[in-house]
Amino acid sequence: MNVREAVLPGRWMRWSFGILFAGMAFTGLGQMPIFKRYYIADIPGLGWTADFFLTHILHYLGAVLILALFGYMAAEYALSIRKRYALTAAGWVRVLLLAGIVGTGVVRVLKNLPDVTFSPAFTMFVDVAHLGLMMLFLAAAVLFALAKRSWVRERSSAAA
Predict the structure, then answer these.
(1) CA 52, CA 31: separation in Å to the nearest integer?
(2) Which of 36, 49, 81, 107 has its CA 20 to 30 A from that of 75?
(3) Which neighbouring-strand residues pair with 153?
(4) Alpha carbon of 78 to those of 32, 49, 90, 130: distances in Å?
(5) 104, 126 Cβ separation under 8 angstroms
(6) Is 125 within 8 Å of 144 (Cβ atoms)?
(7) Strand, coil or helix: what is 85?
(8) Structural contact between residues 50 and 82, judged by C-beta atoms closer than 8 angstroms
(9) Half-sphere exposure of 91 (CA within 13 A, CB side)
(10) Alpha carbon distance 21, 141 (integer Å)
């Protein structure tokens, strides 16, 4: 096993991240709600997608899991990975987009609380920002994957 495999998250982390993000994107689309409108819920096995409250709960559960994954990775990076590896420009773009997605997601959760009220304009801004940041993140992920841009690079021996 080389040093990179010993320090950086393995295949299980990439798969967990990908599956969680795909699930979050799917249930997030269900919040608009488009599955019933465009007859996706009529496809055998996808009838559950027309239930707004079910997709809402699944989206919240996914958010809990993905926040736990982000917390784990932030701690792992801060405690061990950053000693040998630094975030690349592509990594910083991803981190900033994810921070924006999480931030707008938190505001959306607050908006759903019974005693919290935001103006319609601010609510629309947050909704569009959340969706837009997610689309930007997915586009960046595809672009960086095609360009083979990693999240991290090995630090030079002088910087370590």
Answers:
(1) 6
(2) 107
(3) 86
(4) 36, 39, 18, 27
(5) yes
(6) no
(7) strand
(8) no
(9) 13
(10) 11
